[in-house]
Amino acid sequence: MLIHNANLITWGAENQVLYGYSLLLEGDKITAIAPDSELAARHPNATRVDAHGQFVMPGNICAHTHFYGAFARGMAIPGSAPKDFPQILNKLWWKLDKSLNEEDVHYSALVSLIDAIKHGTTTLIDHHASPNFIDGSLDVVAEAVIKSGLRASLCYEVTDRDGEAKMRAGVRENIRFIKGMQAQNESRLAGSFGLHASLTLSESTLEFCRASLPAESGFHIHTAEGLADQDDSLEKSGLRVIDRLAKHGILGEKTIAAHAVHVDAREIQILADTGTWVTHQPRSNMNNGVGVAPVESMLRAGVKIGLGNDGFSNTMWDEWKTAYLLHKSANGDPRRMDGYTVKEMAIENNAALAKVFFPQAPLAEISVGAFADLIFVDYYPFTELNAGNLPWHILFGFNESMITTTIVGGEMLMKDCELLTLDEAEITAKARELSAETWKRYEDLT
Ligand SMILES: [Zn+2]
Fold first, then answer.
1. Given CB 3.0 to 4.6 Å as the disulfide criterion, which of 75, 111, 284, 423 pairs with 310?
2. In which order are the strands placed within the sheet that holds 60-65?
3. How far is the CA of 308 from the centre of ligand 1 (A)?
């Protein structure tokens, strides 16, 4: 496939904006990049895709999400509104996840993946929970991912909150899925070992999970998202959350510690020293009223931080914008969280994190040999757009509704706003039917 008449945004080590360029895609990779006049002449027989002067750039990566939360959209929480994060978990998430059956899990994933294709998010790192359908649940999510054509890493959330048998089932599901993925060396699917959070994991369960972790894999766990996680950890172990996880060998270069909102200086140092990944989800943190993660301090201390969405819509530029605004507002200082810092998390760091799961070729960059994961953006800048000021064009000008075409691994998933792998009308009609039943089961539990 030869994409021509494109304005390229390359990201990568040396971000460039190249006007009037063409890209050659062969298999799942980018194999040539050159000005329009050169590439077309060299490959006269390649299938042509005219970008019509749109910006063509790498697809976005989401470092932490929850497909299973999709059916919460528009759902009423009975009784008084949750007053804090533990109540949000109790009243909403820990009842919604118990209401999901096999079909719900599949359709929650499908609707989330449609949202991702339409909004240009091409790689997603998911954290799944469905306590009444654990065995094989990751295969059901994986089947949806394969249908969609997107790239995703999956895990199952191990927790003690539903008793020992379900805790063990969660561990089994992670091990089974990770080993299956490792055996296949599949480049669009990967697995990690999901853990809920320190506050629902006992000392013995943490020990059991560490002992069960397959080689060459890591954990994906929520950390210090609310103060309750710290209170619980101190009570259970006398240690703060990050110290506790470090003691159990949960941290490391393949582990994701989502949130890290309430971490102290020593915990930040441990995260940096162990090379643990932290993900930042400002929309979720604001929605839950849990506080503001010390993201800039952590970056300065050498912690690797990526950007996720925690199940919010797969509009990663919205997450950019929220991060950009939140830290200015919270600190009363417009110099905080500049555009380059947001870009560092969302582009460089997310790409490096994705590499943990998909090491076969570079992601989130247009370079020869990189995965052909691309989006077309129908954006007409009315001021100069160059490599230096690009983050601010994204923050103030780009919008996910401008994305017209999404390609993953050289395969067209959406062309000129038409979805090619998933039927949105059919899938959402079925999801509305299923979610009505899910909501009933949820109400019965409350
Ligand atoms: Zn989360």
1. 284
2. 60-65, 121-126, 151-154, 189-191
3. 9
Gap from CA of 66 to ligand 1 centroid (Å): 6
Beta bridge partners of 197: 222
DSSP 214: P
Please give the distance, rounded to the nearest whole angstrom, from the Cα atom of residue 406 to the centre of ligand 1. Answer: 25
Give the span between the Cα atoms of 51 and 22, in whole angstroms.
9
pTM (whole model) above 0.85: yes
Tell me whether residue 216 is exposed, middle or buried, using C-beta atoms within 10 angstroms of its C-beta: 0 to 12, 13 to 18, 19 or more. Answer: exposed
Integer Cα distance of 62 and 176 in angstroms: 24
Predicted pLDDT at 446 = 83
Query: How buried is residue 161: exposed, middle or buried, by Cβ count under 10 Å (0-12/13-18/19+)?
Result: middle
**Chain centroid offset of residue 419 CA:** 21
Distance of CA 401 from the midpoint of ligand 1 (Å):
25
111 CA → ligand 1 middle, Å: 18
- C-alpha Rg value of the chain to the nearest Å: 21
d(CA 258, ligand 1 centre) in Å = 7
Q: What's the CA gap between 365 and 390, in Å, rounded?
A: 15
pLDDT grade for 418, boundaries at 50, 70 and 90? very high
Cα 127 to averaged position of ligand 1 atoms, centre (Å): 7
269-312 confidence digits (pLDDT tens): 999 999 999 999 999 999 999 999 999 999 999 999 999 999 99
* Cα 427 to ligand 1 centroid, rounded to whole Å: 24
